[in-house]
Amino acid sequence: MLRRKPTRLELKLDDIEEFESVRKDLENRKKQKEDVEVVGGSDGEGAIGLSSDPKSREQMINDRIGYKPQPKPNNRFSQFGSFEF
């Protein structure tokens, strides 16, 4: 394998200006996203990860995927059917 000398990179004024414009654009988008989350967070669905109650988080996930758990009855007829001895 041939070893080559490192290439010299030069930082130009245009590159710096482009970097600054992209950085400002990303900061503006981030601020807008935070503003939307603050406004959307009042109804409860905007802040899924911020909820401290695990049941409500689990319920929101179940609603999102369409899972509706059915409680199991705890009597012996439901476990063994209606067998008559």
The amount of beta strand, in percent, is under 5%
Oligomer state of the chains in this structure: single chain
Please compute the radius of gyration using only Cα atoms: 29 Å
Shape: elongated
Sheet with the most strands, sense and barrel status? none
Low-confidence stretches: 43-48
Count the strands? 0
Distance between the termini: 85 Å
Structural class: mainly alpha
Mean pLDDT: 78
User: In DSSP terms, counting alpha (H) and pi (I) runs of 4 or more, how many helices?
Assistant: 3
Helix and strand run: HHH
The helix content, as a percent range, equals: 40-55%
Family: Belongs to the CDC26 family.
Biased composition (Polar residues): 73-85
Pfam family, one: ANAPC_CDC26
GO biological process, one term: cell division
